[in-house]
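Hi support team,

I submitted a single chain yesterday and got back a structure, but I'm not sure I'm reading the token output correctly. Could someone confirm the output below corresponds to the sequence I sent? I've pasted both exactly as they appear in my results page.

Thanks,
R.
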Amino acid sequence: MAGDLIFLSAVSLLSALQQCHFAWLVGKSRMKHKVIAPAVTGAPEFDRTFRAQQNCVEFYPIFLTALWTAGWFFNQELASFLGVLYVFARYKYFRGYIQSVRGRITGFYMSLIILICLITLAAAGIGNSFLDEYLDFSIMKKLGKWF
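Hi R., thanks for writing in. Yes, this is the structure output for that exact sequence:
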């Protein structure tokens, strides 16, 4: 059973470590700019670092839900590959945002496109599972005959 989920688990752990790293960078920025908790505003660089981390936290449950649903119901390898791309896109977003507000745009759009792909794969997988379970019709089996 665990072997069946190894890629999804690895990507989830990688993304959790990334979230920890981003939180650590916020703490480091707090010390550098002398922003004492619970304050969330300070120097512009701190504000951007904090906002980038918060945005990543806000998108994290969406990412994990889409990743696991797409991997479980559609294809684990494809979902995991998209998950790794998402982690890279979030890194690009975070680093870009720290530099400038406009620097976040490329990483943001990359991660948004990847999320849309994961959600689409998840919906297709659930739809196929529903059709297969309740109507005895599998789109994946039909496509498998053609390819």
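A quick pointer for reading it: The two ends are 28 Å apart (CA to CA). Let us know if anything else looks off.

Best,
Support desk
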